[in-house]
Design brief:
heterodimer, A: about 600 residues, alpha/beta, 19 strands, about 50% helix, B: about 290 residues, alpha+beta, 2 domains, 8-stranded mixed beta sheet, 12 strands
Chain lengths: ~600, ~290
């Protein structure tokens, strides 16, 4: 009989860890009429190696392993494995995939065979769909090496989403060595298209390539398009909310990149499907062709029910001392713009700062004082002295009252670090636990603060750059301490909490100081264009379509500098608002009816 | 094997005993080492509460062990890393031996009506077999898998394609004096298996591959047509490779594990009497119920 000591209880036997199927080697395929047969060499080698070493495992483990082998089999794409596999994790992170996301993943697997453009409207969770598909392929052993190309600002968000929601431990590309070593790698598309990176990744064969914001590949003469076209990939997903932005050629380029020949040659596509660059022909036939590669879910189809957004604008009356200082600084700005015809940007900054807090404005005034080498009795110095003497902050008084009423997690957004520090000082003095979030924090530190905020509650005081790329669906109260002049930034702030995964109604409190520029901005954003009721991402599309030669902030500043009376300013802002509303209507009218 | 049976057997082999703390909910304490094996190097040991019932999992927050669940997958993954090679034998009781003798004699008389047979003596011996567990992966746009088990006789080289009573197998080997010497190398044994599989696949239903080929052909034509209009041979070549990689029907065959088994063989020395007297050996395999005259 075999000596019992020769039988190894195999669990945790380190030798067994080398016997995984990671590096599968096959013998030359044997060709049959309809298929080929490949025998794995690696599996056999493992067995022979063990035989030679007389390394016998326990027979009970053998029987159990055989049963486990049967349980791990894949049986076609009849149902998604990842839904059951990730159920526990989703419960922990509070994620419930929407039916349209599951259906999309199933369609990509079963019908589109792993090559698709996910073109859902903004906010419907394209990243979730891509994550589902990637995880499903990974669970089935069909994808091991995957590359995710995204704008640099979204790398970290992809990393977090993949880890938290799909248990996929991806790497973020930082050096040229990373390309080969990470199985799932997230990288900036702008980095990837440059050498030496481009030439490295062109040599790698990827099982799956995911491209976020794929509308950036609409032009076939760009380096990004050429890079993606030259990559070796088995499956490919492209994510964009706007597969057509300007003309049908963009759509053709995008689809040809994914699946050459799907729309034929450009000449035939033009003849068959284009009346002119912006008007499609034979929409039914085109729709049929597109459905073979493109999936577009819309909000109007009842795909997603967002929770309610409750917006409260709170008028803050400045104390006489504060009002006087505000008026004096505004006067200085106006005078400076008329006198020097200088670049508007520093003046815009100062005007915005003075709306936020005198602490923020004081820093800029101090810089101006040093820059212009002003006298000791100069206007700037006087302003600085006055600012130092202001003892009251009416906005912060309101914030303290609000926070006391809410009694839940609150995120307070401000544009300036000085204001952020002051708010924290006031709230901590009032006995509240606060966390600071700003752009200077490392990603790891931000994650840690987010975790503490989620676990322990309290008040997060964040600058906008601090909140970028991180989502706070577990919180449903937002206070806008000051108002950004660009509505996109306001939407990004709200989007941190009001997005897929938010289960409660969201409350937004906008603090607006009476008789200041903030009142005008609130008039434009809330009353005129009703931006708080706009759907997520809609504003982005409108602003892109407007193609102004000046920034939104500059447009506003011009109006504020040009006109003095409240009525005149409102009239001009009304015009601006009308322009936005008109563009919105135009976009709706142009909505491509081909998807 | 049902999932609960597999899970309890796993814990048993890990020398752990789950306790039923509430009807249908079990608790087991896993140490750091096992936790790391299950959940990665950062995991720490602790109490694992689990259930096989979805409702109970939702009500009490226990981990659900059901087909596809994370926890079951982690256990299955760990189990599958074990036992690449095992060793066992099938003990045989000679209690039924006279009956077997009668059966053999009966068959011999029918097959050779003019020959008389006399059993001189008999002996129980064990033959070496290599028992392969093989995964067949049918790969095209989709993927389908199945597990097959093959028993290769290391003496005769025959490949037997039937289930053996795994539960009756005992660990270890039997007395080496009773064992036949193997005549096939392990590599040759695998080659026999390969031959059998190839033969089988030649006659197997290929409709899955025919359907996939039709789709593939459509895509290939589309690609070639596109690149005929805008020629770029290098690009065409790469896209065709990608297509083949994604969709070409193929069957991948991976031996996952094997066991060196010693199976009983009853060896009879018989005298054959017809025109002359001759002593033959009859080897009877009680598992397959087949005999061989040499």
């Amino acid at each position: 009989m075999l000596d019992p000591s020769q039988i190894i209880i195999p669990l945790l036997n380190p030798a067994n860890h080398s016997l995984t199927e990671n590096e599968e080697v096959f013998l030359d395929p044997i060709e049959f009429e309809h298929f080929s047969v490949e025998f794995s060499l690696s599996g056999l080698r493992s067995i022979i190696r063990e035989l030679r070493k007389h390394n016998f495992d326990d027979l009970d483990w053998h029987r159990l392993a055989q049963a486990a082998d049967c349980l791990s089999l894949t049986h076609g794409f009849s149902q998604l494995l990842c839904v059951e596999h990730l159920a526990q994790r989703w419960k922990q992170v509070g994620m419930i995939p929407y039916p349209h996301q599951i259906q999309t993943a199933e369609k990509v697997l079963k019908e589109l065979r792993g090559q698709a453009i996910l073109a859902d409207e903004v906010g419907l969770g394209k990243t979730i769909e891509a994550g589902l598909i990637l995880k499903e392929y990974m669970l089935r052993g069909l994808v091991k090496k995957a590359l995710i190309l995204t704008p640099a600002s979204l790398c970290w968000q992809w990393y977090t989403e993949l880890y938290e929601k799909f248990d996929i431990q991806a790497g973020i590309q930082r050096s040229e060595w990373d390309w080969e070593y990470a199985d799932v790698l997230i990288a900036s598309i702008d980095t990837a298209k440059r050498d030496p990176h481009a030439s490295i990744i062109q040599k790698i064969t990827y099982d799956m390539l995911i491209i976020d914001e794929a509308h950036k590949l609409k032009n076939s003469s760009t380096a990004a398009w050429k890079l993606v076209n030259s990559l070796h990939k088995k499956y490919c997903l492209m994510l964009t909310a706007t597969p057509v932005q300007n003309n049908l050629k963009e759509l053709y380029n995008l689809i040809t990149l994914l699946k050459p020949g799907q729309l034929g040659s450009y000449r035939s596509f033009k003849q068959k499907f284009m009346q002119d660059l912006r008007t499609p022909k034979n929409p039914q036939e085109l729709r049929k062709l597109l459905s073979g590669v493109l999936i577009r879910n819309r909000r109007s189809e009842g795909t997603v029910q967002f929770t309610k957004r409750n917006v409260h604008s709170i008028m803050v009356e400045l104390s006489p001392q504060e009002k006087q200082l505000y008026d004096r600084i505004s006067k200085l700005i106006k005078a400076a713009s008329q006198q020097f015809q200088v670049n508007l940007l520093p003046l815009i900054t100062l005007q915005r700062e003075v709306c936020s807090s005198f602490y923020a404005a004081s820093l800029t005034l101090e810089k101006m004082y040093h820059k212009y080498k002003a006298d000791n009795d100069s206007y700037i110095l006087q302003l600085l002295q006055e600012a130092a003497n202001v003892r009251q902050n009416s906005k912060c008084d309101i914030v303290e009252k609000l926070v006391a009423e809410i009694q839940d997690r609150v995120i307070i957004f401000t544009e300036y670090k000085a204001t952020q520090e002051y708010i924290r000082y006031r709230l901590q003095r009032a006995g509240y636990k606060t966390f600071a979030f700003d752009g200077s924090l490392s990603r790891g530190r931000k994650q840690w603060i987010r975790y503490l905020f989620q676990k322990e509650g309290g008040i997060l005081v964040s600058t906008e750059s601090g909140g970028e790329g991180l989502n706070f669906q577990f919180c449903n109260h937002v206070i806008n301490y000051d108002l950004p002049w660009n509505p996109m930034r306001l939407e990004q702030r709200i989007g941190r909490v009001h997005r897929l995964g938010q289960t409660k109604d969201v409350y937004i409190y906008n603090l607006v100081t009476k008789d200041t520029i903030e009142e005008h901005i609130m008039f434009l954003l809330h009353e005129k264009i009703n931006m708080f009721e706009m759907i997520l991402g809609e504003l982005d599309a409108i602003l892109m379509h407007l193609k102004w030669d000046k920034s939104f902030e500059s447009q506003l500043m011009n109006i504020f500098l040009k006109y003095d009376s409240k009525e005149q300013i409102q009239k001009e802002l009304s015009k601006l608002g009308d322009q936005i509303l008109r563009t919105r209507a135009e976009i709706k009218a142009q909505e491509w009816d081909i998807f | 094997m049902e999932i609960p049976e597999l899970v309890f057997q796993f814990f048993k082999l890990c020398k752990l005993t789950p306790i039923e703390i509430r009807k249908g909910i079990y608790q087991v304490h896993i140490d750091d080492q096992l936790a790391k094996e299950l959940d990665g190097w950062r995991a720490k040991g602790g109490l694992l509460q689990f259930t096989f019932d979805k409702k109970l999992a939702e009500t009490y927050g226990a981990e659900l062990l059901s087909q596809g669940s994370y926890r079951l997958d982690s256990i299955v993954r760990l189990i599958r890393k074990q036992a690449i090679l095992s060793c066992g034998y099938l003990p045989h009781d000679v209690f039924y031996e006279p009956e077997i003798q009668n059966k053999i004699m009966e068959k011999l008389r029918i097959q050779h009506p003019f020959t008389r047979w006399y059993i001189l003596d008999h002996q129980l011996r064990y033959g070496p077999y290599l028992w392969f567990t093989v995964r067949f992966t049918y790969l095209t746009y989709e993927k389908r898998e199945e597990i097959r088990k093959f028993l290769v006789d290391l003496v005769s080289g025959r490949v037997l394609n039937y289930e053996i009573p795994a539960d009756l197998l005992k660990p270890g080997t039997c007395d080496s004096n009773l064992c036949y010497q193997r005549r096939l190398s392990y590599k040759q044994a695998y080659q026999r298996l390969q031959q059998l599989v190839i033969e089988e696949l030649k006659y197997t239903d290929a409709s899955w591959a025919i359907q996939a080929n039709a789709k593939l052909e459509q895509e290939r034509v589309q690609l070639e047509q596109f690149f005929r209009d805008s020629p770029n041979p290098e690009q065409l070549q790469r896209r065709l490779e990608e297509l083949m990689n994604r969709a070409k029907p193929r069957v991948q065959i991976r031996p996952l594990r094997a066991a060196l088994l010693y199976m009983p063989k009853l060896e009879y020395r018989v005298m054959r009497v017809d025109t002359e007297e001759k002593i033959n050996r009859i080897t009877y395999d009680p598992v397959s119920s087949q005999y061989e005259i040499s």
